[in-house]
Design goal:
Elements lengths: L4 E3 L6 E3 L3 E10 L3 H12 L2 E2 L13 H8 L3 E6 L2 E6 L5 H7 L2 E9 L2 H10 L4 E5 L4 E4 L9 E4 L22 E8 L3 H11 L3 E3 L10 E8 L2 E8 L7 H5 L3 E8 L3 H10 L4 E5 L2 E4 L9 E4 L1
Parallel strand pairs: 3-6, 7-10, 11-14, 15-18
Antiparallel strand pairs: 1-2, 3-7, 4-5, 5-6, 8-9, 9-10, 11-15, 12-13, 13-14, 16-17, 17-18
Length: about 290
């Protein structure tokens, strides 16, 4: 949906949708922030963004604020988007349950107060509110396992970072989409479209339909991929066994064959390939699941 309104299905009244302005950042939980940052720098040519722009918990409890201060984190410009690498106490829970993983997605909006009211009107619990930074999360128990933040801050309007200091292993890389593994991809896509402005996306390479259902949505300038395994043979089946959640991100490269060969030469093996879609060994990418496409 992109017309700004949605039918609530009850009395026929039109309900306002959240209007995402920009994709704000992709947050990743890793065990060693310094090492993971160095990998993103060397392999994908990431460039640091000032941490003054990061979503620090300024108005939360003293305990949470102290835990954040004790937790290493870096904010990087990776493939056209901000990526927040977090470690330590702030992501101890997700690291314990899933190991290194995607922590959350965030979009910025023009009016965070308005977005919060849309969320509450849908009966979704608001958590992690930070008044000073003007951000909040939706409880993943009510969002099909997807931990999503809405905020007023717009990292895309900060001064563009300069070029990487050296030549990256993979040149011309861009983040193509972000992936969540859910119980019913079509149902979750409809839910997302009932909450925020989205546009269906067609044509991206995906796994076999016999193995998994895949739905792609455009949310601001980021493509969200929702996947539901239909068979134990799906590479997403083991992830969904632990419950629906955010799963991975995909990197688009100019030449997939060349990129995979280059990655292999640098110790990153390909573990799955189906045409123009491949995935690499998470053990070689600091535990993170990364897809590759062209």
């Amino acid at each position: 949906m992109s017309d700004g309104d949605a039918n609530d299905g009850a009395g026929g009244d039109l309900v306002e949708l959240i209007r995402p302005r920009h994709f704000h950042r992709l947050a990743l939980a890793v065990r060693d922030v310094a090492a993971a940052t160095a990998w993103f720098d060397a392999v994908l040519g990431s460039v640091p963004i000032s941490m003054d722009q990061s979503p620090a918990p300024t108005d939360r409890s003293a305990e949470v604020a102290k835990a954040f201060e004790r937790s290493p984190a870096t904010l990087q410009w990776v493939g056209g988007h901000p990526v927040f690498l977090m470690g330590g106490e702030m992501v101890a829970g997700i690291l314990h349950r899933h190991g290194p993983a995607v922590h959350s997605w965030a979009w910025d909006v023009v009016d965070n107060w308005e977005a919060e009211h849309v969320v509450r009107d849908r009966g979704i619990e608001v958590i992690g509110v930070d008044l000073a930074m003007r951000l909040f999360f939706m409880h993943p128990r009510q969002t099909h396992g997807l931990l999503i933040e809405w905020c007023d801050g717009d990292l895309s309007t900060t001064a563009p970072p300069g070029p990487p200091p050296g030549r990256p292993v993979i040149e011309g890389a861009e983040i193509a989409w972000i992936t969540g593994v859910v119980d019913d991809a079509a149902e979750v896509a409809d839910w997302f479209a009932s909450l925020a402005e989205t546009t269906p996306v067609e044509g991206n390479p995906a796994g076999p339909e016999a193995l998994e259902q895949t739905v792609d949505l455009q949310v601001a300038e980021m493509t969200v991929r929702l996947v539901t395994p239909r068979s134990p043979a799906s590479r997403y089946a083991s992830s969904l066994a632990g419950g629906p959640r955010l799963h991975s991100f995909a990197v688009r490269v100019p030449d997939l064959d060349h990129a995979l060969a280059t990655l292999a030469a640098h110790g990153v093996a390909t573990v799955h390939r189906d045409g123009d879609l491949a995935s690499t060994d998470p053990a070689a990418t600091h535990g993170l699941h990364i897809d590759w496409t062209q």
